[in-house]
Structures are given as structure tokens and as C-alpha cells.
């Protein structure tokens, strides 16, 4: 053991650390997604392959050997959405770029107020908030607005008489950028049949990108938050504010220090 430790170089430790960090980031990326189940399935196949090799099951071993020889292609096909999201994370685009803490919290408050008001009136709405990954493809399908985030403007956009009330409203870099945007619907067969088009569109987008979607149900008035393809339903104003605050992560805390009074 001492001989082994003596042969370890600093470069080896750096190498191990980089690999461990990559594995850790991959685990965080797929945590809570369907990729975990698919990864477990591949692990089971690998165990069966090893068992067939040890047990002398030649036909099964030959079949699995040919399957695993193309494992890289299989992984790319199965995890294409997760790989795409991981590559997009390389270039970060912080949501609260250049905003003060007060502006950040005020923006969240405006979104919460609008969502609650729409829910009380049972007016459907879908608000997409950009985080690190850009939403350029989504913005190309809507109508440009470029307005300050305001509860009144958000409510006006989703009124039934508005020509852009059916699509998604996109919040980018702290402003209302585009309305009436069309989003890709999720193809996940496990989604509840009681969820409508807005919810499926929110799930479909967040399966591909790291955006946060706030959905207001037209039928029930309930508010949901969708992120990474997962949905949290029936949120009240307090819970919605907490969830958005956590997901959007305002970076600075308000100062609690008070200046000394001058005599």
C-alpha cells in the first residue's frame, strides 16, 4: 500500500478529481428524470451480459456482446435530450444578469401576482422563464413585446380576447420578450390525461431546456411549476414565490446593516 501511494502523482489526483466531477454533474443532470430508469435498464443488461459470460450461455452472450458493441450509439439515441441539455449548460446565460436583488425579487413578485390573479379568474396562462439555456428557437415563433415584467401586462396578454393569449409568454433577461410562442408538446406517455395542452407544452419544453414554466389551468385555476420535465401542482402564492425564488436563485441578499445616525 505505501508503494502504491508513493507512485501517485499530483497529475493523477487531478485526473481522478476531473472524472469524479464529471460523473457528479451527470448524476445531478439526470436526477429525477426518465434517464435514471433507462440507465438502470442498461446496468441490468450489463449484469446479464457478465453473468452469461461466466455461466457459459453462449447464445445470450453473443447477442448481448453485439448489442453492447454499439453501446455508444445506443446511449446517444436514448439520452439525446439529456446530452443536448448538458452541452447547452457549457455556455451559461444567467437569468438575473445585471439586476439588483430588489429588482430580482420584484420581478418574481410580479409573476406571482399575475399568476394568482389569473388563477382566481380561471384564465389559462403559460409563462416561460429563461435560465441558463437560451430560448432563441422559442422566441422565433411568437410576437415581440420587450416590456418590463408587470402583473398587469401579463394578465392583459392572457385575456381571452387577446390575439396572443393561446401561446406562451417568455421572460428573458428580466423582461417580457415574446408572447404567443408555440412550444413542443411532450411525448411522454406517463403524463396524466387530465393535463391539458399548456401543461404538456410546458413539460415538453423543459424536457429539452432548463427553463422554468409557470402554468395556470383554465379549468381549475390551479397554478403549477414545471422544470426538467417534472411538474409541481396546486401552488398558492407563498409556495409559488418560494419555488421561483429557489429555481431562479437571486444572487444577492439585501443588506441588513444600517448606517450610523449622524449627530
Query: Could you tell me the number of beta strands?
Result: 7
CATH superfamily of the largest domain: DNA integrity scanning protein, DisA, N-terminal domain
**Per the principal axes of the C-alpha atoms, what is the gross shape?**
elongated
Q: Sheet with the most strands?
A: 7 strands, mixed
Q: What is the total number of structural domains?
A: 2
Contiguous runs where pLDDT drops below 50 for at least 5 residues = 91-95, 251-263
Rg, rounded, reads 24 Å
CATH architecture designation of the largest domain: 3-Layer(aba) Sandwich
Distance between the termini: 70 Å
Short descriptors:
263 residues, alpha+beta, YojJ-like (1, 11 helices, 7 strands, elongated, disordered C terminus
Describe, in plain words, how this protein is organized in 3D:
With 263 residues, the chain is an alpha+beta fold. The chain folds into two domains: 2-88, no CATH class; 101-248, DNA integrity scanning protein, DisA, N-terminal domain (YojJ-like (1, 3-Layer(aba) Sandwich). It has eleven helices and seven strands. The protein has helices spanning 2-6, 10-30, 34-55, 58-68, 71-78, 80-88, 101-120, 136-139, 151-157, 197-208, 237-248; strands at 125-129, 143-148, 168-172, 175-181, 212-216, 223-227, 230-235. The chain has a seven-stranded mixed beta sheet, with helices on both faces. Helix 7 (101-120) runs parallel beside helix 9 (151-157). The longest helix has 22 residues, at 34-55. The protein is elongated, with a radius of gyration of 24 Å. The chain starts with a helix and ends in a 15-residue tail after the last helix. The model is unreliable at 91-95 and 251-263 (pLDDT under 50).
